[in-house]
Design brief:
IspG_bac-typ; elongated; five-stranded mixed sheet; eight-stranded parallel sheet; 44% helix; TIM Barrel; EC 1.17.7.3; 13 helices; alpha/beta; Sulfite Reductase Hemoprotein, domain 1; iron
Length: 418
């Protein structure tokens, strides 16, 4: 089934096939799904399960693990068992390269337990072996009714396919430049591999596609073309996005454009963790990207003043950080207990210029005094001033106000009503 500029009129997203991954749906009318990947040695089942749980509790709805050795494949059942003991039901995706056909065949429990397989068509073999080994993996996916992400990566493009496209381009009356050839090779690899998967018996609603590159403009161009030419669900993300602000900015710049155009059904923000940094940061960035775009809601959003010469005190900065940390820490419990609390908005403002006005626009807002202003902090709830805080305990008092507001405003879920 092909498509050309068809949109899902209920969500503004392009209409794609719906693919079940465990208990989740990717594509169709389902919301954009967030995923992440562990960086542990998968053979260490306990360490990998702990990181899977951390990612899932941070909001990763799918977690991918490397399955690259017999030891890693053998550990998958133990990882799943450990997660079940921790009451973490996140679906696990197996990431296969080079020897995936052997690992899936030799370790049937691994093949059964994984919720999805990721196959890179550039790394499954060469020549006749490529088709045979790809077919073997697809047949196993069909046997266990597993969806497959056909994940093309520009660092491991199928060289035979690339040479074929380069030859055809050289004969064209209007040849593409080198960048155009690379982009077309990425799209062709994904679509041709998907077509082969269906020929080998995998149902069309068990296929997700991705074309990972490192360049923002390359990603946008490739996914626009991929979306124009097929209706498989698409996994978005830069590969090797980078560290810190560079990785965050690059990932957001690329994916936000595509998401705004309705392209993308599941995303990963591939950040390089700073030494000692948390792997969960990429999950938080993905959530904040979707939430600030108005596509999903995960946790109350805090608007905060950037500060200027009127706000030489750091009090508002410290309070903004306190509130941001508080709502993130409380959100797992709030999500279980209350309906809709993730849509709550808060504002922590630093002076009288925009403070009261901005605070009134949030569900709960506080306007702290700037330099030389009266040492009082009015609090607004749903646009109405309810109290003025003073003294040394403003932060603790404001946190308590937030907690009372949640308990008073949001309906308790029925299973907790008793």
């Amino acid at each position: 089934m092909m498509m050309d500029d068809i949109s899902n009129t209920t969500t503004g997203r392009r209409l794609t096939r719906a693919v079940r991954v465990g208990a989740l749906t990717v594509g169709g009318s389902a919301p954009v799904v967030i995923q992440s990947m562990t960086n542990t040695d998968t053979a260490d089942a306990l360490k990998t399960a702990i990181q899977c749980a951390e990612l899932a509790r941070a909001g990763s709805e799918l977690v991918r693990i490397t399955v690259n050795t017999p030891e890693a494949a053998a550990a998958v059942p133990a990882i799943r068992e450990q997660l079940d003991r921790m009451d973490v039901d996140v679906p696990l995706i197996g990431d296969f390269h080079y020897n995936g056909h052997r690992l899936l065949a030799d370790f049937p429990e691994c093949a059964k337990i994984l919720a999805k397989y990721r196959i890179n068509p550039g790394n499954v073999g060469h020549g006749r072996k490529r088709d045979e080994q790809f077919a073997q993996m697809i047949e196993i996916a069909g046997k266990y009714d597993k969806p497959v992400r056909i994940g093309v990566n520009w660092g491991s493009l199928d060289q035979e396919l690339l040479a074929r496209i380069m030859d055809a381009n050289a004969r064209s009356a209007t040849p593409m430049d080198a960048i155009g050839v690379m982009r077309e090779a990425m799209v062709a690899s994904a679509l041709e591999s998907a077509a082969k998967a269906e020929e080998y018996g995998l149902a069309g609603d068990r296929i997700i596609l991705s074309c990972k590159v490192s360049g923002v403009q390359d990603l946008i161009a490739i996914y626009r073309e991929l979306s124009r030419r097929a209706d498989y669900p698409l996994h978005l993300g830069l590969t090797e996005a980078g560290m810190g602000s560079k990785g965050i900015v690059a990932s957001t710049a690329a994916m936000a454009v595509l998401l705004q155009e309705g392209i993308g059904d599941t995303i990963r923000v591939s950040l390089t963790p700073e030494p000692g940094g948390k792997r969960t940061q990429e999950v938080v960035v993905a959530q904040e990207m979707l939430q600030t775009m108005g596509l999903r809601a995960f946790t109350p959003m805090v608007t905060a003043c950037p500060g200027c010469g009127r706000t030489t005190s750091t009090v508002f900065q410290e309070l903004a950080q306190t509130i941001q940390n508080h709502v993130r820490d409380r959100m797992p419990a709030w999500r279980v207990e209350f309906d809709g609390v993730e849509n709550m908005t808060l504002a922590v403002m630093g002076c009288i210029v925009n403070g009261p006005g901005e605070s009134k626009h949030a569900n709960i807002g506080i306007s702290l005094p700037g330099t030389g202003e009266t040492p009082a902090a009015p609090v607004f709830e749903d646009g109405v001033k309810t109290v003025t805080l003073r003294g040394e305990n403003i932060a603790a008092e404001f946190v308590a106000i937030v907690d009372r507001y949640v308990a008073r405003t949001y309906q308790r879920k029925s299973r907790n009503a008793s």
